[in-house]
Structure formats: structure tokens, C-alpha cells
Amino acid sequence: MNTDDAIILLTAGTLATACGLLGPFLVLRRQSLTSDAIGHAVLPGVVAMYLLTGSRSSLLATLGAAAFGLLCVLAIDALRRTRLLGTDAAIALTFPALFSLGVLGVSGFASGAHLDLDSTIYGEITFAPFRTMSLGAVEFPRPLLMTLLAVLLALGFVLLSWRGLQTLAFDPEFADIAGLRGRLIQRLLLMVSAIVAVIVFDSVGAILVVTFFVVPAAAAQLVANRLDTMLLVSVAIGWVSSFVGQRAAVAYDSSIAGMIGLTTVGCFLLLRLLAPRRGLLWRWLRLARRRDNTGAPARTGADSAQPKNTSASA
Amino acid sequence: MSEQHQLALQLSNVEVSYGGRPVLREVSFDIPTGVLAAIVGPNGAGKSTALKATLGLVPLTNGDVRILGTTLRANRRRVAYVPQQDLVTKDFPITAIQVVEMGRYPHRGWFRRLGADDDAAVAEAVERTGIGALLDEPLDELSGGQRQRVFLARALAQRADLLVLDEPFTAVDTRTEEALVDLLAELCADGATVLAVHHDLRTVAERFDHAVLLAGTVLAAGEVSDVLTTEALARAYGLAPRHTEPARAAR
């Protein structure tokens, strides 16, 4: 592994850490697709910033994106709160509107200006080692700096509002009754997620961000008995996937983000099958044992592995 | 208890609408302190909504709720809520003891650590609900009855004066139901007030002192024996009087 590989691995791993700390709350609150919505909703912000300033600087683009990312999550939350539609519908109603606005903006005003969206907001982790900025005397890869910033933000938020977050995710009505300001926490969670997503989009690409928000958390839920464990497991799955995915991408000379994304899904499937108590294999065994106990008491243990065959032949 | 003569709960002219459609109209009733009270009524009568209005979980379009003589805001810590079991996420990664400890959060807020007082309240709640053997079990491994005990323990750990329960006996076996009823009666004897939504008319009279019969608005409220009259039940369930012995009207 050379230095470039190490930088890519560190960038992916720190990104996985930031997303793995917030993702479990979004997954448990059934709001995981919020991260995808943010990815689309930021477009008009980038276009508007370009039209206003004529500059393609990524700092300005990120600010514009952040403004619309926040607008998006607050609009979703406000729509959901009307009780007229569910969270999924609120998400589906909000981001296409904003994304369409962005597309119209690009085609109407900015088409001649070569506003390259891929490089402006939807970055690519492969280029992480080459996009350096100087910090005093040293050249530091900018994407890694962004993901580290995201970790600090996510970690600070989770540590400071742990009790509120735990209660909100488990029993939002109790959070309100207990005076834990459930609504405030809910909004803060969405806003911190939006800011984290926006500051890393530019460095690593939207797909990887959405993947890291959702898949490791969903996998961790299959094995964790406590919320803190779920966060740790989801961060760990992110790091393992980053390592395996990066190595596989080098070995097969293919997309790093693609390989990492695929590895997270692989981890999910593995746990879905093998997780103690909640995994499919465990359930099948339990079911088979129960069928064995109730169906035919005289059967021996050897039969219990294949209850279908034995009952068919009987 | 200096509030011996106060009302635990007082609803005056409460109105609640969902999307412009009124669910509760002119709901007024009083619950005295120290009683075991039930809200009964047919499906869609607004029973759960009445609880949520009491707890400030739905906005009132009109009317006023007084808890222990003042507003809910001033009394949050003294009101505990046990949600309907069907509505609780069962696959949430949390252990029984963590749920019970949540009962101390209203007293400690976001940041303050749980101290010796809190540990004592949690230990007492665990003992009274008999869940000592389940503490480290994840919630999704518990049966409906065990889970209900855990949530009741959370309410007890809060050491609240008013306990509000939504359908506490659904998804619970008969033995647990009896144990829970005994426990609630004990709490009332100690001076607390219990308000529960209850759908089984057959058992209201034997388990509760006080009842509110609800069907969009209050049809009757007061001592159980005065509320569950044939005539009132007939009006609530829209049945002819001769078919409305409690046993038949239950479902």
C-alpha cells in the first residue's frame, strides 16, 4: 500500500466514521433516505452561488449547497409535522422539487459556463490524494481534512446530545413529555447530517456518502443490543469496507467508491444471514427445532436438520 | 401530600382536530387524585387522542388542560406515560434496564449524570414490577407482557404523581394483567393517580374506580358504577338498550 492508497483509505474510513455515528439515528427514525435527498437538493444552491458570484470556487459552492441542504431537511421535517403525509412521501415531495430547480438553473443560465457538477459537488474519492491544500508548511489532502472536520462535527453532536438522541430515536413522545426537547433534537440531527453530507460530497462523491449513512447502520442493527454498540459496529463496518473495497479496487483496477459500496452491502448480507438471534440461519434453525418439538415428538435429533424431507417421507 | 383535595387532571372544553376533522369536541372531565381511572369508548371515540391532549402531544384547537392544579409545562416531571405497545419500535437496540433508566431523564435533562437517588428509584421500580431477571435482555427478546412491565417500570422510576397508560393490557397474558392491576392499585393507595385507556368493558367495573365514557365527546364521567349504565353505553356504542349489557358490548 503506497501513500496515495493510505490517503484514500483514511479518507474513506473517516467518512465512514462521521456517517456511522449519525446513520444509526436516521435508520432507526426511518429517515435514512434523507441523506440521498440532500445529495439532490443541494444542486440549486451550487447553481445560485455560481450565478450570483460568477465563481466556481468550491468553498462558495459548498456554502450554497449547505444552504439548500438545510432548506431541504427543514422542509421535509415541516411537511412531516403536518401529519398529512409520511416521512417517505415528505422526502419524495421535497427533493425532486429542489433538484428540478437546479436542473432548470443549469440548463437556463449556466449551460454555457461549463458548470461541471461532477467536480464541483459530486467528487470522486480516487482523486483525494491529489487535491491538496497547504496548511502552514505541509501540503495536506483537502478531502481528508473535510472528512476529519465531519467526524469532529458528528462526534461532538452525538456526545453532547446522547441522551436526547437516544430517547428521540426510541420513543419520541416520551422525549417530548420528559421535556428533552424532542423536536429540537430531531431538527438538529437533520441539520448536522445535512452539513456533514455537504462538506464531504465534494471530496468523496454522493453515492459513497449515502451508502455510508445507511448500509453500515442497517447491518449494525442486526447484531447490536444497545445503541452505543450499534454506533461502534456501524463505524467498524465502514472501516472494514473501506479497507477491503480499496484493496479490491486496486487488485481488479476498478472504481474505488463502487468497490467500497459493494463491500458494505456484502457485510450487510453476511450479517443478515449469520447474525446471532436475528440472522436468517438462526431463525431457520429455531423454526426447525420448534417444528421438530411440536410436530413429531418421536423424531431424533438427526432428523431435525431437514424437517421438510422427513415430513414429506413420513 | 398537600394536594389531597386537588384534582389530578381537569379537561375543560377540549377540542382536537386532525387535518380539519374534529376528533374531540367539548371534552370536559375531572379526575380526582388517588383514583384508578379508565377512559372507555368505542373504536374511533378519540380515547388515545384524549390521552395525547392531556400530555400535550397534540395541539388543542380549543379548551384547557390542568394537571395537578397547574399546567403540564410546570408539571412535566410528575406525569409519566406508558405508550401503547403496538406503537413501540420493537427492534430498537436497547436493554430493559436502559429503558427503565430513561424514567430518570425527566429529572436529569440532557446532561446531568444519574446519581444515587436515581439508582434507588430505578432499583425500586425494577423490584415492584418484578423484572430483575430481565435487566440485560434486549427489548426484542421480551414477550409482550415482559415488555409492558419494563415500560411500567420506567414510569415508576420517574416517581410520577400521574400515570397515563394507553391500552396497558393489550398483548399481555392474564397473569401479567392481574399483576399490573394490583400494582396500579397499590400506586393509587400511595397517593398517585392512574389514567388508562381500556377497551375491555367487561373488566372496567372490577378494576377501576373511576371512568370516562368517550365517543367524540364525553357521554358520562364519574364513579364507574354511575358511568357504565345501560343507557350511557347504548348511546356510546349506538346499540339498542336491551343489547348493551357490558359483556356483549365489549367488542
UniProtKB/TrEMBL annotation, chain A:
Q: Where are the transmembrane segments?
A: 6-28, 37-53, 59-79, 91-110, 144-163, 184-201, 207-224, 231-250, 256-275
Spell out the GO cellular component terms annotated for this protein, sorted alphabetically and separated by semicolons: ATP-binding cassette (ABC) transporter complex
Q: Which UniProt keywords apply?
A: Cell membrane, Membrane, Transmembrane, Transmembrane helix, Transport
Q: Which GO terms describe its biological process?
A: response to zinc ion; transmembrane transport
Output the InterPro entries linked to this UniProt entry: ABC_BtuC-like, ABC_TroCD
Q: Name one Pfam family in it.
A: ABC-3
Q: How does it sit in the membrane?
A: Multi-pass membrane protein
Give the UniProt subcellular location, in the record's own words: Cell membrane
Region Disordered, as annotated, extends over 294-314
Q: Report the SUPFAM superfamilies cross-referenced here.
A: ABC transporter involved in vitamin B12 uptake, BtuC
Please report which protein family the annotation says this sequence is part of.
Answer: Belongs to the ABC-3 integral membrane protein family.
Protein name per Swiss-Prot or TrEMBL: Manganese/zinc/iron transport system permease protein
Q: Which organism is it from?
A: Tamaricihabitans halophyticus
TrEMBL record, chain B:
Q: Does the keyword Nucleotide-binding apply?
A: yes
GO terms for MF: ATP binding; ATP hydrolysis activity
Record carries keyword Zinc-finger: no
The UniProt entry, under SUPFAM superfamilies, shows: P-loop containing nucleoside triphosphate hydrolases
Tell me the Pfam families matching this sequence: ABC_tran
Q: Which UniProt keywords apply?
A: ATP-binding, Nucleotide-binding, Transport
Which residues are in the ABC transporter domain? 9-240
Q: Which InterPro entries match?
A: AAA+_ATPase, ABC_transporter-like_ATP-bd, ABC_transporter-like_CS, Metal_Ion_Import_ABC, P-loop_NTPase
Against CDD domains, the record matches this protein to: ABC_Metallic_Cations
Q: Which domain of life is it from?
A: Bacteria
PANTHER family named among the record's database cross-references: IRON TRANSPORT SYSTEM ATP-BINDING PROTEIN HI_0361-RELATED, METAL TRANSPORT SYSTEM ATP-BINDING PROTEIN TM_0124-RELATED
What family does this chain come from, according to its entry?
Answer: Belongs to the ABC transporter superfamily.
Q: What is this protein called?
A: Manganese/zinc/iron transport system ATP-binding protein
